[in-house]
Write a structure and sequence with these properties.
This protein is α/β, with parallel strands linked by helices and 257 residues long. The chain folds into 2 domains: 106 residues, Translation factors (Elongation Factor Tu (Ef-tu), domain 3); 132 residues, Nucleotide-binding domain of ferredoxin-NADP reductase (FNR) module (Rossmann fold, 3-Layer(aba) Sandwich). It is built from 6 helices and 15 strands. α5 packs parallel to α6.
């Protein structure tokens, strides 16, 4: 497939993207709607190093045409050369492949565009805004930033329309999901999850974020929702609330159809 990835593959090659072959070693159904695949990395972690919220693009066949989607690494282990990926089991090339995947199956992966710059000074409070598509990245972020307290506005998408999005970064196969889909990796003593009905997220963040920002000296605001919501909230945080760019991170994880 490396030679047949269409214009997306051509652009990535020009941007010096790195390609790897992943091999499935096992699978588990986390819920009836989500499946976690365990994979060997084909040398990926040794070649690229690991950072929080790291994601890779996987290449699927879609009726003879290349189809790429991005997924956040779960529990990457550079020493073992392994990680896991989590799939929403909806109709589409990614979900179909994950549903059928068995040990020994392989898939091509590309690394390009992922990155994370740890804020300095360390956050005194993490303020994260996301939805089911970005939950693996939220878990990775909370793991990486240590003991800082966190408030997470989490959009429940039980009424979401089908979308083409990145299983957890930049786009994913379907943003449908609920707060009880994949599990949060949170510590109730320092992490607060505020569940928000779909379509009310922007209003809730506008109402609640300013007071939390005013109460912490070194905030870190992390936003990963659909592209439109991410742009709206990013502009609000930076332009209206005046949070410096280096204290924010925003990436649209999927596009509504």
């Amino acid at each position: 497939m490396a030679q047949g990835r269409g214009w997306e593959g051509a652009v990535l090659r020009l941007m010096r993207a790195k390609d790897f072959t992943l091999t499935v070693t096992g699978a588990e159904d986390v819920t009836p709607r989500f499946r976690r695949l365990h994979l060997t990395d084909g040398g990926l972690l040794a070649a690229t190093a690991v950072h929080p919220t790291m994601w890779v693009r996987l290449w699927f066949d879609n009726a003879g045409k290349p189809h790429q989607r991005a997924f956040t690494l779960v529990d990457p282990d550079p020493a073992a050369g392994t990680f896991s990926l989590e799939f929403a089991l909806h109709e589409g090339p990614a979900g179909d492949w994950a549903r059928a995947a068995r040990p020994g199956d392989t898939i091509e992966a590309t690394v390009q565009g992922t990155g994370f710059e740890e804020p300095s000074p360390a956050p005194s409070h993490i303020l994260a805004i996301g939805d089911p598509a970005s939950l693996p990245a939220i878990n990775s972020l909370l793991d990486a930033l240590g003991t800082a307290p966190a408030t997470v506005w989490f959009e429940n998408a039980e009424n979401a329309e089908n979308t083409e999005n990145a299983g957890n970064a930049e786009s994913a196969e379907d943003a449908e999901g609920t707060a009880v889909g994949l599990p949060f990796r949170t510590d109730p003593a320092r992490h607060e999850i505020r569940h928000v009905p779909r379509a009310e997220l922007v209003e809730r963040v506008r109402a609640e974020l300013p007071a939390l920002l005013a109460a912490t000296p070194d905030p870190y605001v992390w936003i990963a929702c659909d592209t439109r919501t991410t742009r709206t909230l990013s502009a609000y945080v930076r332009k209206e609330l005046g949070v410096p760019r280096e204290r924010t991170h925003a990436l649209g994880y999927w596009r509504a159809s």
